[in-house]
Amino acid sequence: MTTNYDFLFERSFEQSNKDTKGPHVTLTYAQSLDGKIAGRHGQQLILSGAQSMTATHILRLKHDAILVGIGTVLNDDPRLTVRLTSEDLPKGSGPIRHPQPIILDSKLRFPTTAKLLLPTSPTRPWIFTSPIHSSSQKKANLERLGARVFVLDLDLSGHISLEGLFSTLWENNIRSVMVEGGASVISSFLKSGLVDSFLLTIAPVYVGKDGVSAVKDAEVKKNIFQEASI
Ligand SMILES: NC(=O)C1=CN([C@@H]2O[C@H](COP(=O)(O)OP(=O)(O)OC[C@H]3O[C@@H](n4cnc5c(N)ncnc54)[C@H](O)[C@@H]3O)[C@@H](O)[C@H]2O)C=CC1
Ligand SMILES: Nc1nc(O)c(N)c(N[C@@H]2O[C@H](COP(=O)(O)O)[C@@H](O)[C@H]2O)n1
């Protein structure tokens, strides 16, 4: 069976529904029937099938930036690149452009051995951390390896302020950002009301109670399907 992905190519991800200046936000992740995005102790699971994975990579191609939390980097060591076959690209698409990786990392735990810092990685990550790390040796080491480290204030819950993040991304010409996870980041974005598009893959499997829930906060859970446009 062949799948037509034109609906994803035709869609613009640059128009935000928000009044204020800020990038268009697409939230997308894969979960099991019981709402889990990873296994026991965060074990990475391949929940997407081939077609859904292709859709994910088309979304990566269509966005200026891709965002994950440091928990995902430490657990999965992701590449966050676009990997598509020529059959999946419409004719005349031109060369593949990889999105800018953005990492939310309040305590600057980003490992200097991460795949995102390898010379073979097409785009160096932008890491957002808190003022306490503004002149640390770790920051200098990451910058020497090619990362850009931005310092932003924390919000009341001790996380990077999403408002501050958004204006910094806008100032740096990021007009669209795809948020992939993990669990804490998904909850933060759902709570923030900043999500413009939501693409959820549901795999026909149960992971069980030891798995990592996509959304832990009961209040967020209740509001997901009322507020997000699917
Ligand atoms: N199935 C899927 O589609 C995906 C699954 N995952 C899974 O998610 C798990 C990781 O999830 P978590 O441990 O929750 O880590 P996470 O990736 O959500 O990162 C959380 C960390 O980000 C930092 N952070 C800074 N500002 C933040 C903000 N405003 N909001 C939230 N976090 C902020 C904090 O240091 C926090 O500890 C892994 O097991 C991974 O495999 C991750 C992405 C996609
Ligand atoms: N779309 C999707 N489906 C799944 O089943 C997944 N486990 C994920 N995980 C996300 O993809 C990242 C890995 O990216 P690379 O293949 O290394 O480029 C992983 O860290 C999660 O963000 N996504």
What does the largest sheet look like? 7 strands, parallel
Number of helices: 7
- Architecture, CATH level 2? 3-Layer(aba) Sandwich
Principal-axis shape: globular
Class of secondary structure makeup: alpha/beta
Radius of gyration, whole Å: 17 Å
CATH class: Alpha Beta
CATH-defined superfamily: Dihydrofolate Reductase, subunit A
Order of strands, widest sheet: 6-5-4-3-7-1-8
Q: Within the CATH hierarchy, at the fold level, what is the topology?
A: Dihydrofolate Reductase, subunit A
Helix content: 25-40%
Following the backbone from N to C, one meets helices and strands in this order, namely HEEHEHEEHEHEHEEH
The chain-level mean pLDDT equals 92
Number of domains: 1
- Give unreliable regions as ranges: none
Structural account:
Residues 23-222 form the Bacterial bifunctional deaminase-reductase C-terminal domain. Pfam families: RibD_C. Pathway: Cofactor biosynthesis; riboflavin biosynthesis. Belongs to the HTP reductase family. The structure is a single chain. The chain is an alpha/beta fold. It is 27% helix and 19% strand. It has helices spanning 6-10, 50-62, 70-76, 137-144, 162-171, 183-192, 218-227; strands at 24-31, 36-38, 65-69, 100-104, 126-129, 148-151, 176-181, 197-202, 212-213. The protein has a 7-stranded parallel sheet, sandwiched between helices. It has a two-stranded antiparallel sheet with strand order 2-9. Strand 3 (65-69), helix 3 and strand 4 form a beta-alpha-beta unit. The mean pLDDT is 92. Bound molecules: 1,4-dihydronicotinamide adenine dinucleotide and ligand LIKH6CAM. Ligand LIKH6CAM is lined by residues 30, 44-48, 53, 56, 68, 72, 76, 78-81, 180-181, 201.
